[in-house]
Design a protein that fits this description.
- By secondary structure, the chain is an alpha+beta fold.
- It contains eight helices and 18 strands.
- Strand 2 (about 30-35) and strand 3 (about 40-50) form a beta hairpin.
- The longest helix is centred in the N-terminal third of the chain and has 14 residues, at about 85-100.
- The protein is globular and about 60 Å long.
- The protein binds pyridoxal-5'-phosphate.
- Pyridoxal-5'-phosphate (PLP) binds near residues 233, 235, 257, 259 and 299.
Length: about 350
Amino acid sequence: MNITVTKTGAPKPKPADDILGFGQYFTDHMFLMNHDPEKGWHDPRVVPHGPLPLDPAAMCLHYGQELFEGLKAYRGVDGKLRLFRYRDNIRRFNRSCARLDVPLIDEALFRDALLTLLRTETDWTPRSADASLYIRPYLIATDPFLGVRSSKSYLFILLLSPVGAYYKGGITPTSIYVETEDVRAVRGGLGSVKAAANYAATLRAQTRAGAGGFAQVMWLDALERTYVEEIGTSNAFFVIDGTVLTPALNDSVLPGITRDSCLCLLREWGVPAEERPVSIDEVYSAYADGKLEECFATGTAAVVSPVGQLCYAGQSITIAGGGVGPIAGKLYDSLTGIQWGRIPDTRGWTEVYA
Ligand SMILES: *Cc1c(COP(=O)(O)O)cnc(C)c1O
C-alpha cells in the first residue's frame, strides 16, 4: 500500500534534551490509517501532528475499545538509528487487536508505516546519552454510536515523542507498595494485552501509593491477593538464593519484551531463572531467611528498575541494601548496551533503519 507523506510547513523548534522528561513533546508528524468494513485498512498517511477529527459519540470514548503499544528508537554511539525487537511489538499489537475484537494490521504494512514515519523524523531522535525517541502506536474505535458492540470503523495512529534519559544520575532504586485492595487485571480479562482499559483500573492505587511516598505499586493476583503479577506497568523479577524468579505468564500478566530479553540473557549467562507463580509470602520469608537478594521491574521505559524498598501489610523491607543488585545492574548494562550499539547485537534484536 502506498503511504502518502504530507510535510508540515511549520516545523517546531526541538526542545533541549535535558528538559524532555517522558511523553511531553511530540515530533512534527504522525501516521494515520483508517479502517472500515468495505475498504479494510486504507489511506495510510504521514501528516503534520495535530488534533484528530473525532465525533464525540466515537465508541472509543464510551466503551474503551482502544489499545496501544510502546517501543523506542535509539541513536547509537555509532550515529546509526536503531529499533529493538519491534517485530515483537507488532505481533503483540495484533494479539491486543484480536482480544479487543479489532481487525488486525498486516505486519509488513505496520512495519512500513513505522519506518516511513521514523525516516521522516530522523532529526527528532535525541543525541544525548540515554535519551531516545518513544514510539506510541495506538488504535481507536471510531463509529459514532452509543450501543454496546464492536465498532466497524477504526483509526490507527503512530505518535513519536522524544524522551529524556530515564535515570539522570545513574540507576535509582524505588520504593514499592504492595497493593492489597485494588487489582490490575483478572483471569480471562485484558491483563495480558495492552488495552487502554487496564490502566484505568490502576490509577487510584497509583495515586494512593504516590501520596504515601511510593513510586509504584506491586500488583497481586485478583483471586487470592497472594501471587505477584506485576510492578506498576512493568514485569516483576526477584532473586532468591541465587535463582532469578519471575511470575509465569498467564492471562493477567503482560508478556513484556524486556522480560523476555532478560530471561534470554540470564539463560545464556547460565544464571538459573524460573518462570513460575511467586507468592508475596515466599518473598517475605526469603527476606526473613536472608535469601532475598534482589527485586526489580522490567519494561521499555526504564529497562530495569531495581526495588530498594518493598512495603506489604505494614511491613517495610530493604532489598539489596537499597542499592542496585548485581543481576539488575548487569541486565541493565547489557540491554542498554545493545540498544545504543555499544555492545554488538548477536541475537538479531536490533535493526538499523537510518
Ligand atoms: C508494557 C507493559 C510491560 C512491559 O512490556 P515491555 O514490552 O517490556 O515494554 C509490562 N507490564 C505492563 C502492564 C505493560 O503495560
